[in-house]
Amino acid sequence: MKKLVFSSIIFYCAAVFFNVMANGSYPKEIRDDLRLLPTREMVGLLSFDHRGAAADYLFTQVSIHSGSLMWKPLDIQFDSGWAYGMMDLVTDLDPKYREAYLMSGMGLIHKFSDAELALPILKKGIEANPDSWELPYWYGYDQYFYLDDSETASRYFMLAAQKPNAPKANWGLLVNVSKESGYYENAYWAMKVMYDSAKSDKVKTIYAKKLVQLQNVFLIQKAADTYQQETGDFPPSLVQIVAKGYIEEIPEDPMGKGYFWDGDKAKVMINE
Asked: What is the pLDDT of residues 239-251, one digit of tens each?
């Protein structure tokens, strides 16, 4: 993760440096001849089918535009449509272009709405690079931090965590996002991995309590789902599933927080 962030910073700095050397100032707009979005077929023809070299060139053009605007004045706007259209073309030319997918998912996002343009490119990268943990991770990151979609984020963080060489540092984020969205099975899985790999007895004790907490919520949610299947509606409160005999009692929370029913999400939630 640190290497990826460092590489992105290097790309930005290099883009700023080369642009200032060439132009002496920030580009206020993309030149009209560079603003065009050629087709994949046209690029293949003009590059004599050297698609990898063409992808590198186009990637550099996008990096220069984005990087030179990193510390831009407020009146200079990043051309999101052009940049992401170009990255879509780059990844069509070279479906394994890992850096292009990563740049799309993190380096090109200048405003929250840019994340919407990044997602289709990241999804294309996930399909083309099935062993990569970084691409589903950044898909989930963009969904959570930019688009406020914790449910989708939980699914993609889970996908990333199960890939080869996925860093352990991501499991804590998976637990928190999954708890927030009500995907307690994902949270339990990640917490179990954290418990098994913990070295400190004190940490293991805390993780053991959190595992019990997640197991409790899963059982309560299962009772609420059964209530809905048999009655056609979700319970108005947790008291109702106890009163109707779907669960004997609401278990005590080992972390001292307790549980409540969120009618909007139709999920059992943990008091935080």
From this structure: 999 999 999 999 9
